[in-house]
Amino acid sequence: MKAVVLAAGFSTRLYPLTKTFPKALLKVKERPILEQVLAQLLTISEIEQIFLITNQIYFPHFSHYLEQFDKQKQVKLISDYTTTPENRLGAIADLLLVMKQEKIDDNLLVLAADTLTSMKLSEFVEYFHNKNSSITALFALNDPEQIRGKLGVASIDQEQLITAFVEKPAEPTSSLVAIPYYLFHKKDLPLIRKYPTTGLSLDSPGSLLSYLYKTTQLHALVLPANGYYYDVGTPKALDMVQKDARISHAQL
């Protein structure tokens, strides 16, 4: 199994904090957001290599961070060489870049570097092996206003197989929102490589899900109702994370 951490966006909604500094290295409860992601990845023994992809502006910051990281040899830093929000490649294009450059043909775990969630990666990987198919994660968000035009939503059957997925719907038909946790079965990697021919967005991972559920089996692990999920993309979200008592320094 290989892992890709996506960190090449320019985080414009958090300017000026992220004008020249990566969002994933902002501190929550005194530790960088990325640290929780890497700490969990390193608990999965079957992950042979972690790839962290970023843009050229943030590259030096991540490089400096990894120099101090005690298991830096397990993380390979890659730049997509973009320098502005206007010429960014997009999350899916970055994923495809890593897959091509590193010749990845293994089961592939993909995470966003700015996501904080109570979902344990060990449980996510176990679920993957139980289902023997590509999987994603979902969270029940019972507030249509938070979903409308902002988040991807899914419908699932009794076997937790995704039966519908709509990226950022104007009128949500489900309360199950997508968490950017993906584990793609190696048999589905050819489908992902063909994705650019669909003409769908190369920026939004949700668009990839809307393609995959129609072309292969895609199961979803649903986060328990008492869990938490944050996309730390705005000043408001960053403030909420800092105040959330469920997130402790020890967890990060």
Question: What does this protein structure show overall?
Answer:
This protein has 252 residues and is of the alpha/beta class. The chain folds into two domains: 1-116, Spore Coat Polysaccharide Biosynthesis Protein SpsA, Chain A, CATH 3.90.550.10; 119-227, Spore Coat Polysaccharide Biosynthesis Protein SpsA, Chain A (Alpha-Beta Complex). The chain is built from eight helices and 13 strands. Strands 1, 4, 5, 6, 8, 9, 10, 11 and 12 form a nine-stranded mixed beta sheet that branches. Strands 2-3 form a two-stranded antiparallel ribbon. A two-stranded antiparallel ribbon has the order 7-13. Strand 2 and strand 3 (31-32) form a beta hairpin. The radius of gyration is 17 Å and the shape is globular. The model has no long low-confidence stretch (mean pLDDT 88).
Task: Produce the secondary structure layout.
Blueprint: E1 2-7, E2 27-28, E3 31-32, H1 33-41, E4 49-54, H2 59-67, E5 75-79, H3 91-101, E6 108-112, E7 115-117, H4 121-131, E8 134-140, H5 144-147, E9 153-156, E10 162-166, E11 176-184, H6 189-194, H7 205-215, E12 218-223, E13 229-231, H8 235-243
Parallel strand pairs: 1-4, 1-6, 4-5, 8-12
Antiparallel strand pairs: 2-3, 6-11, 7-13, 8-11, 9-10, 9-11
